[in-house]
Amino acid sequence: MKLQSLITKATQFPEATIAVAAAEDEEVLKAVAQALQAGFGRFILYGDESVLSRLVPEYVQDENRHAIRIVHASTKEEAAHMAVKAVHGKAASVLMKGNVPTATILKAVLNKEYGLRTGRVLSHVALFDVPHYERPILVTDAAMNIAPDLQQKTEIIINAVQVAKAIGIHTPKVAPLAAVEVVNPAMPATIDAAALSLMNQRGQLKDCIVDGPLALDNAISVESAQHKGIESSVAGHADILVVPNIETGNVLYKSLVYFARAQVGAIIAGAKAPIVLTSRADSAESKLYSLALAICATNE
């Protein structure tokens, strides 16, 4: 599914309410305005009421302002906690990070009393539209788990598969990435990839097809896989790329955005509700795609 189509899909579900923590941000409010114009979502904006009351009319058209409620918060920390509490109490079904540090909002998400933990690993799932590549592709985990072990990678895959199914990929093909295509005891990523593949074959990882280790070129290029003689239903056809660590994911993510000019939407999965945790440097367009992805994920 192309990211533009994701917006159309998001409008087909019952209207979701999004709680935005520290919403006093130009790109966030642009994304909110675009979402309302597209026809999906209602928004609770937590932040400085005087600032938001001034900014909202600059971005949101008059006919859409009925879908916005402003709730005053004295600090960014208070805004984060209030937004998380709204999702925990089901006043909202999606949490969105505004102009607040990631550590601050994650502290609220992980709060034992009213947070959004489920006991599962939280992981970042990004959906990319890459120019001149024939289909969208999911990348995980580029932002949350630093050096995931085998069990964490298992849960990262489960989260990504659920997101894939939410956007219409019912049996996604999963490629655990490494630098080579063979198991090398000196390269732990290859060992984990082989173990994940075997777990999939034995039914421990369901609703997907996992095969690895695969290098990036063999995961996404049929020609490359054929040239190397790799026989695999995943090679050249991967829907989900599982990176071995956060450095690899971060570089791949930013390479796609800055070198390839890819469009991207991303969420944190594995919590009680999807979390739109984009960077403060991300564009309004990226935040809009992330909102659409989150709404689709709530209806999986």
From TrEMBL:
NCBIfam families reported in the protein's UniProt record: P_butyryltrans (TIGR02706), PRK07742.1 (NF005837), PRK08190.1 (NF006045)
PANTHER family for the chain: PHOSPHATE ACETYLTRANSFERASE (PTHR43356:SF2)
Domain called Phosphate acetyl/butaryl transferase: residue spans: 56-294
Family as reported in the entry's similarity comment: Belongs to the phosphate acetyltransferase and butyryltransferase family.
Gene3D superfamilies recorded: Isopropylmalate Dehydrogenase
InterPro entries noted in UniProt: P_Ac_Bu_trans, Phos_Acetyltrans/Butyryltrans, Phosphate_butyryltransferase, PTA_PTB
Pfam families: PTA_PTB
GO molecular function: phosphate acetyltransferase activity; phosphate butyryltransferase activity
Protein name: Phosphate acetyltransferase
EC number: 2.3.1.8
Keywords linked to the UniProt accession: Acyltransferase, Transferase
GO biological process, one term: butyrate metabolic process
